[in-house]
Write a structure and sequence with these properties.
heterodimer, A: 106 residues, mainly beta, globular, B: 112 residues, 7-stranded mixed β-sheet, 4-stranded antiparallel β-sheet
Chain lengths: 106, 112
């Protein structure tokens, strides 16, 4: 199956800072999604973005399919942004990366 | 709008006991349904997926089984739990084909 690598594994931010999370994948994909898992375990779908750029409030994502990577941007981070961010790729059988743990400090 | 319900939220079971976790989806028809497991501090592992009633695909050989008795109902079962079955179990759904995946709130299973 497709290999998914996320970086960095951990990220500590001061409230208000901006950050970029990266997802590399080993083969062409039809489907790439970003998720946020909050400290209580709830997983929320942030973006469905097999290619191009999308924005949702302070979050945006860009996928460059030809170069096999996707980036998730967090701007003006807030403590509620803390949690684990997962990238997932493939067809309907999504394969998840190991995640980036983000801690935003007040 | 579509919603997904998963229960129970937490469960503590002794080794060797049976397991039944249930997941239902509302507001959509013929969804793809999935069971994932997340070990503590780790990523998500796909256990089973289903594209229709009675159609179950297993991704990982294990002590668990899944069934889909109705279009929007997905059940995860075990006849005899092992300690290694402990984890966070998440049900998810998507529209047929390639589309966003949506998760339930999960069940934290501790096997003692």
């Amino acid at each position: 199956g497709i290999q998914v690598e996320q970086s960095p594994p951990d990220l500590i931010l001061q409230e208000g800072a901006n950050s970029t999370l990266r997802c590399n994948f080993s083969d062409s994909v039809n489907n790439l999604q970003w998720f946020h898992q909050n400290p209580w375990g709830q997983l929320i779908n942030l973006f469905y973005i097999p290619s191009g750029t999308k924005q949702n409030g302070r979050l945006s994502a860009t996928t460059v399919a030809t170069e096999r990577y996707s980036l998730l941007y967090i701007s003006s981070s807030q403590t509620t942004d803390s949690g684990v961010y997962f990238c997932a790729v493939d067809d309907y059988k999504l394969s998840f990366g190991a995640g980036t743990t983000v801690t935003v400090r007040a | 709008s579509q919603t997904i319900h998963q229960w129970p939220a937490t469960l503590v079971q002794p080794v060797g006991s049976p397991l039944s976790l249930e997941c239902t989806v509302e507001g959509t028809s013929n969804p793809n349904l999935y069971w994932y497991r997340q070990a503590a501090g780790r990523g998500l592992q796909l256990l089973f997926y289903s594209v229709g009633i009675g159609q179950i695909s297993s991704e990982v050989p294990q002590n668990l089984s899944a069934s889909r008795p109705q279009d929007r109902q997905f059940i995860l079962s075990s006849k005899k739990l092992l300690l290694s079955d402990s984890g966070f179990y998440l049900c998810a759904w998507s529209v047929q084909g390639t589309s966003p995946l949506h998760f339930g709130n999960g069940t934290r299973l501790t096997v003692t």
